[in-house]
Amino acid sequence: MIDLYYWPTPNGHKVTLFLEEAGLDYAIKPVDIGKGEQFQPAFLAVSPNNKMPAIVDHAPADGGVPISVFESGAILLYLAEKTGRFLPADARGRVAALEWLFWQVAGLGPMSGQMGHFNVYAPEKIPYAIDRYGNEVRRLHGVIDQRLSRHAYLAGDEYGIADMASYPWIEAYDALKPDYPAFPHLKRWHDAIAARPATQRAYALKDQVNPDAGKPLDEEARRHLFGPR
After folding, report:
1. Which pLDDT band, with edges at 50, 70 and 90, does 36 fall under?
2. Together in a domain, 191 and 112
3. Are residues 29 and 6 in contact, defined by beta-carbon separation less than 8 angstroms?
4. Residue 55: φ, ψ to 5°
5. Cα radius of gyration (the chain)
6. pLDDT of residue 224
7. Mean pLDDT across the stretch 28-35?
8. What residues does 70 pair with on adjacent strands?
9. In whole angstroms, what is the distance from residue 30 CA to residue 40 CA?
């Protein structure tokens, strides 16, 4: 059994995508980031950076004591190695998968998050920041579109952890969707993943765990998410 410390954010969706695809047994431990639960000592013992998701694997491959893992990219890599799935076994395929996984965690995720922050959550509109992050995300969409013009998925012909990492960040904000006419290969890839039954099961958890997802933030949530800690 795997305990998943989760809230329905793009990074949270990455891990449920894998767990649903792999059919692993897991239990959701909700971490309400709008109420500051990510700062509780019990969670910090698992995720010292006070970010979710995180997991605790109670049946690690070595048969030892439970293993905790934080950071969504590390979790995907851990689960892929544990199950032997969604990560190519050959050296060249593995390199491609890790390149695109790290591309997402270092670029697509942070830049998309900043784009969303300055467009959706910031208390004042700062044109420089809006243009800066919007332009960078568009550049990244162009990078992924070029890759997908030559391959069905990011690491090659098979769906894998690099795709699971990137997919939730493509339409993370309803009002900030990609320019799909300019990036048709990105659209083809996104539609293919959206149609997967495991993707639909993973995203159905959003309404179960947080029925208020998508609603404007109240002052308490803003304080916990964006205030100094």
Report:
1. very high
2. yes
3. yes
4. -130, 160
5. 18
6. 87
7. 96
8. 54
9. 12
Q: Would you say 7 and 30 are in contact if contact means Cβ atoms under 8 Å apart?
A: yes
SS (H, E, C) the chain: CEEEEECCCHHHHHHHHHHHHHCCCEEEEECCCCCCHHHCHHHHCCCCCCCCCEEEECCCCCCCCCEEEECHHHHHHHHHHHHCCCCCCCHHHHHHHHHHHHHHHHHHHHHHHHHHHHHHHCCCCCHHHHHHHHHHHHHHHHHHHHHHCCCCECCECCCCHHHHHHHHHCCCCCCCCCCHHHCHHHHHHHHHHHCCHHHHHHHHHHHHHCCCCCCCCCHHHHHHHHCCC
On whether both 140 and 117 belong to a single domain, the answer is yes
Confidence (pTM): 0.95
Mean pLDDT of all residues in 48-69: 97
114 and 137 housed in the same domain? yes
> Are 99 and 6 in a shared domain?
no
- pLDDT category at 218 given cuts 50, 70, 90 is confident
State both tokens at 151: 């391959």
* Tokens, residue 177: 């969707």
**Residues written for the chain:** 229
- Same-domain check for residues 159 and 64: no
Phi first, then psi, for residue 156 (nearest 5°) are 145, -130
